[in-house]
Amino acid sequence: MASLYSHDYSLNGIQIYHPTLKVVNENSKVGAGYMRIINNTGKNIKLMGIESKIAFSQEIHEVILQDGVYKMRPIKKGLIIEANKEIEFKPKSYHFMFFNIKNTPEKDALLSANLIFSNNIILPIKFKVLIGQNNKEHNH
Hints:
Layout: H1 2-6, E1 9-11, E2 14-23, E3 30-39, E4 45-52, E5 55-66, E6 69-74, E7 79-81, E8 86-89, E9 95-101, E10 110-117, E11 121-131
Parallel strand pairs: 2-11
Antiparallel strand pairs: 1-2, 2-3, 3-8, 3-9, 4-7, 4-10, 5-6, 5-9, 10-11
């Protein structure tokens, strides 16, 4: 049973810790995905994208602070994770955006997705759904 609750994943030296999908409420059609990605490969890797049936579209996003205002924008050409470094996907930083969520999200459900990396690495993961928890920082 421990594997159900840890929801950590690894493949080819890439580790994913605690992927979560946060939505404001059960009727939300937009959600944000967070996690920690660690590159233990000794060389730079690139996160190219994400595939899932969670929503009609999903994207990698970054948040920048420009003139005192946080602005969200998609990352279209991938995100480099340096050798032996990590990137945290969190509010006001890198995150995944899910647009037009297909089904009503249920609290603590595990939803499948694939992270697509350079060198044809596809890492299957599951996002744990969190509803109404600390979402005040991530409004659209």
